[in-house]
């Protein structure tokens, strides 16, 4: 067996948002048309680390693609990334494993690319202020991906450690804020990318018509968004099945899911641009 290994630097070299965002738009359509076989990931909890190992298999007959991502989330890591992953790709005709590749870069970029698809459809065309809550890997990736979809004049950043918000603001030409309320008050698009298990974004702080990409809180007992904001917004998800199993923001608020992103891209469900919208991302 001759299994090729593709390291992170090679993945990074060939993966670009300009191609990845349209690919994700297409993948979301296939997912919601039930054209791929993709069960909700299995999670093995690692209680000592407040973390988990996620097993994410998928098969697309139209793409002749059979693969599995193995991803760990160790939120307390400080000297190494909190998310680490590998992806194994199999020959879909004979089941032979062909490639093992880094999955960290793909996790970083794929997540932001899907939020970019949500933002393209759900944010106002003239959206000019982006607010980002969190200052880690996904914060950076989201600023890059979303800036390719809308021309933001202002990027407001809040992080629980101000110095980290200032560092990121320096990198992207943004402004660091002391409070979430101040950071989001003028925002047309908000991204929540924290490892918080309790809500950081409150309904009363969000102006009507804003689009929120809610990316953190991927556990059934974790929340990042005020339940009132979840219930009063038009709610989109990547996967209904995953949202009902994995998202504390959805499960605990009992908010109604309006659509999967793929249904919206297919035109089966409206893109409610005028209304306050939340895209609850879990990762598929
Ligand atoms: N929806 C999806 O497909 C994916 C979701 N994620 C989630 O996105 C979030 C961010 O991921 P990364 O940027 O890769 O992680 P990271 O570890 O690089 O950054 C985490 C950020 O959250 C902040 N944070 C941690 N605990 C907090 C708390 N209690 N209150 C407020 N802020 C807190 C940290 O200061 C840091 O700014 C995580 O929840 C992660 O699990 C990550 C990858 C894919
Ligand atoms: O899709 C992913 O990959 C992840 N989603 C939720 C948090 C862990 C990684």
Automatic annotation (TrEMBL):
<dbReference type="Pfam" id="PF02423">
    <property type="entry name" value="OCD_Mu_crystall"/>
</dbReference>
<dbReference type="GO" id="GO:0050241">
    <property type="term" value="F:pyrroline-2-carboxylate reductase activity"/>
</dbReference>
<comment type="subunit">
    <text>Homodimer. Binds the thyroid hormone triiodothyronine (T3); T3 binding inhibits enzymatic activity.</text>
</comment>
<dbReference type="InterPro" id="IPR023401">
    <property type="entry name" value="ODC_N"/>
</dbReference>
<protein>
    <recommendedName>
        <fullName>Ketimine reductase mu-crystallin</fullName>
        <ecNumber>1.5.1.1</ecNumber>
        <ecNumber>1.5.1.25</ecNumber>
    </recommendedName>
</protein>
<dbReference type="InterPro" id="IPR036291">
    <property type="entry name" value="NAD(P)-bd_dom_sf"/>
</dbReference>
<dbReference type="GO" id="GO:0042562">
    <property type="term" value="F:hormone binding"/>
</dbReference>
<dbReference type="GO" id="GO:0047127">
    <property type="term" value="F:thiomorpholine-carboxylate dehydrogenase activity"/>
</dbReference>
<comment type="similarity">
    <text>Belongs to the ornithine cyclodeaminase/mu-crystallin family.</text>
</comment>
<dbReference type="InterPro" id="IPR003462">
    <property type="entry name" value="ODC_Mu_crystall"/>
</dbReference>
<dbReference type="GO" id="GO:0005737">
    <property type="term" value="C:cytoplasm"/>
</dbReference>
